[in-house]
Amino acid sequence: MICKLTRKEGTPIKAHIIPKCFFEIDPSEKGVTKLLSNFSNSFPKKSPIGIYDQSIVTEEGERLFSKWDDYASNIFLKESEQYEKINHKGKEIAFKRKEFDYGLLKLFALSILWRASVSSHYFFDKIKLGPHEELIRQALLNNTPKDTDWYSVSFAVWSDRNESPGFMNPHKIRFNGINYYILYFSRYIMYIKVDKRIATDTMKSVQLMENSPLLLVTRELEKSKEFPIMVNMAKMNARE
Predict the structure, then answer these.
(1) 23 pLDDT more than 90
(2) In the prediction, which pLDDT does 131 show?
(3) Cα–Cα distance, 133 to 115 (Å, whole number)
(4) pTM, whole model, 2 decimals?
(5) For a Cys-Cys bond, which of 61, 80, 130, 142 suits 5, CB 3.0-4.6 Å?
């Protein structure tokens, strides 16, 4: 096949869109990770090994993803305790990590968005990058994350970091009229600006920046827009 990333011919590989490690649950927990969908007439699906697509990259292309995926696995999973809590008026509002590699983490985020856009898997049907797809491909191929405002990236985490509500379809949202895609992976949430305009102050203050701490803003699941969808999915699960 022709690799969609390198544009070279090679052996196709079952490439995970979201790295497999984010689907793995503690052995003491019951059940397996669920894919939750906000598509109408869609039911939750068990996914113990994650979502993969054999139509995206060859072995050479997959190797380019590995360093970014490994880094994200380390700082979000293996080193998840190395964050400082940020409290305001007695309430936990964010987590902070003083040092991180801006380039590796931003390219991880952009690679997930790009993989979702070129994937033929139904779960990513709402990711349509259009002309942005080629710009991001070039950045990945050239290992160039560019500056903080270029497809800026922000992260959040569900307030109880010890529980994963499952994986929901990524989709487009707007903050003050500016376009973002929101993607979920385990207990973490990722926002990527796909818009030429600069982020407004609220989002700009928490986006990835070089020589600045990594911030994970907390979100309360029960107060989120996603919660009703997750409740409905839980009801469907109970009928399985």
Answers:
(1) no
(2) 96
(3) 9
(4) 0.84
(5) 61
